[in-house]
Design brief:
The complex is a heterodimer of chains A (192) and B (355).
Chain A: E1 2-10, H1 15-28, E2 32-37, E3 47-55, E4 69-72, H2 75-81, E5 90-94, E6 108-112, H3 114-122, H4 128-139, H5 145-155, H6 164-179
Parallel strand pairs in A: 1-4, 4-5, 5-6
Antiparallel strand pairs in A: 1-3, 2-3
Helix pairs in contact in A: 1-5, 3-4, 3-6, 4-6, 5-6
Chain B: E1 4-7, H1 8-18, E2 23-26, H2 33-45, E3 49-52, H3 56-68, E4 73-77, H4 79-84, H5 86-94, E5 99-105, H6 121-125, E6 136-138, H7 143-160, E7 163-169, H8 170-174, E8 176-179, H9 214-234, E9 238-242, E10 249-252, H10 255-270, E11 275-280, E12 282-284, H11 288-298, E13 301-305, H12 311-319, E14 325-329, H13 338-349
Parallel strand pairs in B: 2-3, 2-4, 4-5, 5-7, 6-7, 10-11, 10-13, 13-14
Antiparallel strand pairs in B: 1-8, 6-12, 9-11
The chains are: A alpha/beta (192), B alpha/beta (355).
Chain lengths: 192, 355
């Protein structure tokens, strides 16, 4: 078991948080994990990315050229990262913000209209990251759903504990979207 | 034992508290500011002093003052800030004051950038400031090791009455990994009878870093020399990973690069290569003998660093010409990839590698 997961998007989309939930969940499952963020003079609206490795073995490199799972939350990260996905890997696309189609035939592509699902089904626009995570682990259980929930409980403590229920709901919305075959019940590419 | 996912900088800061550090003086700089941030919250909780100084130069001189009283004290910075501290580090070494200095290094020279680099190796291992002195240099490679080596740094600083540097980089500082907080056991240390405790605390003591009589100053330098020899005899540390006995090639790397080289060792196995890695954990004292021994077993050496070739000079001193030593480096905050290193190894094993 060895997964190299690359997550990219805008600052403010919760990219680093999503990675932290994944890494914490992997740790809860008993794996070795690492989390490495892009860091720099970045801010809301700039680019953000992070790499999470979940492995049975001691982790060497904490960055990767060939992720087997890649989540892209906006077009710049789609353009930059989708060519890197390892053959047979999984690309999760936030189709709310990425209008291009990925032409690659050698990988699995999961399109999730995360902004619409977060806004209309969860009711909180800021939960796109957890919607995406719910859909990802429904498609490919790199960590279990309950480990993801436990990870949220470890991270959202104190004053932030009141955000737990909405994040749990977002995970569920993402999961059931994937389970229903990724059918878009809301307008997939509405212009905002 | 519960594992906690922690950022390298925060784990180091907590380890300093656990090791008994109660005084921290620093000035913010990326990529290590979380150390200051964490200690600004935690030190007051344990009755310690956190002080953000007006500059790095002020901070290192506050370290000198605190260390003179025998307390455990730390400062941290990155490349440009560490350069500013060098005068103070030379004074600390001369006054034989124990302290811990953390460098989460970044791309240089000059202001450079804030991405990971190892280009401060020479500065760290050759003293850094003026005069004939050395500091112990520890090079962690994981967040857990940031914890264990921080404990060790405070211990070694007291054992030798000498500044100890922890040389990390932006990647180690910024990354998160699981950490366990086990009790750390280190040998006991003699009381600090040299420390200045204030009025009516026994005989008069001086902590000085000046000696005008050249004979006396030579004697003092000889004393330092014996101390550095003792460090080499008792406290050099390294890790060997991969093929121990009959490798095709020996890889040498420290810190972040050593992690990448572990991935290279595993990937190389798929190519049918028997690769071995030696990772110096102490950069001063450097494990010269062990590097030579492994190099002779392998017959070929590849040193990988995030600089233009600094530790490779120590590797060559260790190998003494008994095996060809190749080098691969990335600079400016670029991180070498597993693929690039595998390509370099393929070239060397085909006999095309340029030394």
């Amino acid at each position: 078991m060895h997964h190299e997961i690359l997550i990219g998007g805008f600052g403010g989309q919760g990219i680093l948080f999503l990675g932290r939930v994944l890494a914490t969940a992997g740790m809860i499952e008993g794996y070795e994990v690492s989390w490495f963020p892009s860091y720099g003079p970045e801010m809301r609206g700039g680019t953000a990315s992070c790499t999470v490795i979940i492995s049975e073995e001691e982790i060497g490199a904490t960055v990767t050229d060939h992720p087997d799972i890649c989540i892209v939350m906006n077009e710049p990260s789609f353009n930059r990262f989708s060519p890197l996905v390892k053959e047979g890997g999984l690309l999760v696309v936030n189709s709310s913000l990425i209008r291009e189609n990925c032409s690659r035939q050698d990988i699995d592509i999961l399109e999730v209209p995360a902004n619409e699902l977060a806004g209309k089904e969860v009711g909180v626009a800021e939960t796109t990251n957890m919607v995406i995570l719910g859909a990802l682990i429904a498609r490919k259980p790199v960590v279990s759903f309950s480990a993801a929930e436990k990870a949220l409980e470890k991270i959202l403590t104190g004053k932030k504990a009141n955000l737990l229920s909405v994040n749990f709901k977002a995970l569920e919305v993402g999961k059931s979207f994937e389970k229903k075959g990724g059918v878009v019940s809301v307008s997939k590419r509405s212009d905002e | 034992m519960e594992r906690i996912l922690m950022k390298g900088n925060e784990a180091l800061a907590e380890a300093a508290i656990q090791a008994g550090c109660r005084f921290y003086f620093g000035y913010p700089i990326t990529p290590q500011t979380e150390i200051s941030e964490y200690l600004s919250r935690r030190l007051p909780e344990v009755g310690g002093v956190f002080l953000q100084a007006e500059s790095e130069i002020a901070a290192i001189n506050m370290v000198y003052g605190a260390a003179s009283t025998g307390v455990r004290v730390m400062t941290s910075s990155s490349g440009p800030g560490i350069s500013l501290k060098q005068e103070g580090i030379s004074y600390l070494a001369s006054a034989e004051l124990p302290c811990v200095i953390v460098n989460m290094s970044r791309g240089g020279p000059g202001l450079g950038n804030i991405q990971p680099a190892q280009s401060d190796y020479f500065q760290a291992t050759r003293g850094g400031g003026h005069g004939d002195y050395r500091t112990l240099v520890l090079a962690p490679s994981s967040v857990q090791e940031l914890v264990s080596l921080t404990h060790r740094a405070f211990y070694l600083a007291d054992k030798y009455r000498n500044p100890v540097k922890i040389l990390g980089d932006g990647m180690l500082g910024q990354m998160m990994e699981p950490v366990t907080w086990e009790a750390v056991e280190l040998p006991s240390l003699p009381p600090k009878n040299w420390a200045i405790k204030g009025k009516n605390e026994g005989e008069r003591k001086f902590i000085l870093c000046m000696e005008l009589d050249p004979r006396e100053l030579e004697n003092f330098n000889r004393k330092l020399e014996r101390k550095y020899q003792q460090m080499a005899e008792e406290d050099s540390a390294w890790e060997i990973f991969g093929e121990e006995d009959n490798p095709d090639l020996l890889l040498v790397g420290f810190g972040t690069v050593a992690r990448i080289l572990k991935s290279v060792v595993r990937e190389g196995k798929k190519e049918g290569w028997r690769l071995s890695l030696i990772r110096p954990i102490t950069l001063f004292p450097f494990p010269y003998n062990e590097v030579q021994e492994m190099a002779q077993k392998a017959g070929k050496v590849l040193v990988v660093e995030m600089n233009l070739g600094q530790m490779v000079e120590d590797v060559k001193l260790g190998v003494e010409g008994k095996a060809p030593v190749h080098f691969y480096g990335r600079v400016g905050g670029m991180i070498p990839t597993v693929d690039e290193i595998l390509q370099k190894i393929a070239d060397i094993l085909r006999g095309e590698g340029r030394k």
